[in-house]
Amino acid sequence: MTDHLIKTTIAHELGLEAEQIAHTVQLLDEDNTVPFIARYRKEVTGGLDEEQLRAIQSRLKYLRHLEERKETVLNSIAEQGKLTPELEAMIRAALVLQEVEDLYLPFKPKRRTRATIAKERGLEPLAELILAQEVTEGTLEEFAQGYLSEEVPTAEDAYAGARDIVAEVVSEDADLRKAVREQTFERGLLICTVADASLDPQGKYQMYYEYAEPLKAILPHRLLAINRGEKEGVLRVKVEAPVNDIVAEAEGRYLKNERSIFAPQVREAAADGYQRLIAPSVERELRNVRTDEADDHAIEIFAANLRNLLLQPPLRGNRVMGIDPGYRTGCKVALVDETGKFLGGTTIYPHQPQKQWDEARELLVNLVTRGNVDVIAIGNGTASRETEALAAEVIAQAGRGAYVMVNEAGASVYSASPLAREELPDVDVSMRGAVSIARRLQDPLAELVKIEPRSVGVGLYQHDVDQKKLAEALDAVVESAVNHVGVDLNTASPALLQYVSGVNKRVAQAIVRHRDGHGPFKSRQELRKVKGVGDKGFEQAAGFLKIRAGENPLDNTFIHPESYPVVERLFTLMEVRGDEPDLAQRVKAFRAQHDLAELAEVLEVGLPTLTDIFDNLIKPGRDPRDELPPPILRSDVLKMEDLREGMILKGTVRNVVDFGAFVDIGVKQDGLVHVSQMADRYVKNPLEVVSVGDVVEVKVISLDPERGRIGLSMRS
User: What confidence category does residue 504 fall into, taking pLDDT thresholds of 50, 70 and 90?
Assistant: First the structure.
């Protein structure tokens, strides 16, 4: 498949124009990042969005790898002198890697098998006689005589070896393997039985102790749970295929002459070829395929949850008290100012005798009052709800503030990281977690990028999926989110900067060193002075790096420096200056009075770019997160005992999974909105309805205080 054919294939698969694919591939090959292409090369790609671009990138990588593998396979077969024009045509026409591997199987260098040992003993001619089935008279013993030796003492030994050779021929039949794969997938059952119940004291896998489900129909979260149970030694898992039908098909392909004295040998070898050689291989392949699909699904959900968590609106301009709750080691309390600067902290022990509760409350009231605390951010881990009750008392007594429950996943990972040591060198490790919790409320994106994405805790089975694939997907999400929001060049940490288009860890650190050594950047052009930022790096990064109150107001927008001349021509046409106080209103009015397509021709710029220019001039310094609803601020506590069926409450979506969404309604346990209760219609995927961080109105439909379970509904 030539590169042209690869592009044509991708265009057909994704339902896009061939020209769009060709231009996109060229941009990717020139090391342009996906965020850069999506935002600044719309005219070239025909307006493809990030999701489409990443789909092209992924498919391009697969098909190019496929072509490389084809060349390796063809060279290997050619070196053996066994490459025929027909075989070469079949390999070159293959569209999936598995087809190539099936065709290569007979020529693949092998370890010693029963068939190779039989060949070494001179039994290959006998195997060929069996496969040919031309002999209809005589006895098996008669034809075996010429193959007996010290290593093959009897006729049965001779035929056993010959059958091993035939079985291997059967197992290497690419068409048969394909048929077996299809039949096993379509009709096979995934069978689970208990292997060792003692390894499952809490009965997590009890529903799978005696379980069967069609392999093709099993839901991703079930398959991942079964795989985990098998890995932990609790479950025994196998695929049950339609053996009799498959064996009959294998025999039918190789049994040419029922009258041949070798017909029974063919039947036995064909059955053995399937059961001993094909079946285990196909079972592994299909389970791997289904697991890969389940992995992709789980990663997709995790990625969607992570993106929504990262893009939660910041709570700007607030002094925040962060509390990292705990029982035995106490609650760490950290105060940060409006910019996230650590002002001081302490440890309280409220969850011990009443005296300590009272002392902790008085201490926090004093801190809230003297520190002008606006909001208390409470980590949602161990002892969080008890700490919430304390926070409510503090707010009531202080007469100011509110509290918010904050996802604390990964705070301990950050606390012990080199970055935390660098940012908070004189702060105790345990106190750094409380600082992180406070900062997460002020700017979730800026703080969450400091920890490994998989530690954020908004996934399902994230420890069971392909970790390399997960890391790649989540890094792409973080990159997308950071570039979607943009970054303040003068305040961003290296952890945030490294995700900006065209910037890596080394360049991010160089930017911060330059900033520390030369003071704040006054213009985007100064970025060129940073060591490691070349022309390409500047082109990729500049539009995403913003400078507030810089020399050029355009530096605080998503307008790329390459488009500044267009803006100047626009300002000349409008007869305005770029620093006029009412510029946004004048631009808005001008846009309403003109046809953008005609204006684009006059200004010699593409229509998508001109549209973006107008959007940014009308809302300079815009943060897309500000358009989302803010977090729910609470001042009192709701207990499980306070809940009644039929109650209507507001809550925050904490996690979205295959079977529904977990919603924080302000009590100790998050409630579950099952997928069947999400809307007055059938919902296949919960992500169609809700996202992590959404504020939703729910009705309590069931309560199970003993197990701490709350059933919620979003249906009208």
Answer: very high
